[in-house]
User: What shape does this take?
Amino acid sequence: MKIKYFAWIRELTKNNEEYLDSNEIQNLEELKKFLSTKYPDLQNHFDQEILRFAVNQEYVVENIDLNEDDEIAMFPPVSGG
Amino acid sequence: MIKIQKENFNVEEEINSIKKIHSNVGAVTSFIGYVRDNNNNTNVESINLEVYEKMAYKQFKKIIEEANIKWSLIDTLIIHRYGKLQVNDKIVLVASFSSHRKDSFEACNFIMDYLKKDAPFWKNEFYDKKNEWLTNTS
Assistant: This one.
């Protein structure tokens, strides 16, 4: 699956996007665990629940199942307009 | 119509290009957002706006559909810029086209409220010696 990062999350991961092994990551909670291991600095932000997730360009808040062809995005609160 | 672009735009031309195809439009409400020179008592020099473009198109389309259910609208225009912008540059234009003013006023406000809360754009503000990512508060 593809995961995209934006704003200061992109700076923290030093990556615009990357591909993850979907066999290891079945749902959103598993993805968060995987990412907080890979990027320990994220843990604090997960704990504060300030990061937002989108799957296939739709916001998700529940622990939904993830599929191999999903495009996931993780980003901080928005500041457009 | 939805446009996500780096380029500047001319408000009157953009509104006229839609107005001229609908002779039943009697009211247009527009909102224009600009880069201002001061934020939290700090002088702003420029901003860099980042966008998740694919999601922004999808979410704008959805919010226009929602506005169409709530109000009697003839057309809607959203233009949102991204990239490097200077003080006084336009960031966003939302225009609602309807027969009567109440629908266009309320729909324009509704779309802007959504846009500030959920549209996937991020402002990185540049000051004299540092820069900072912003979070919308309202």
Residues 2-128 of chain B form a domain with the Aldehyde Oxidoreductase; domain 3 fold (CATH 3.90.1170.40).
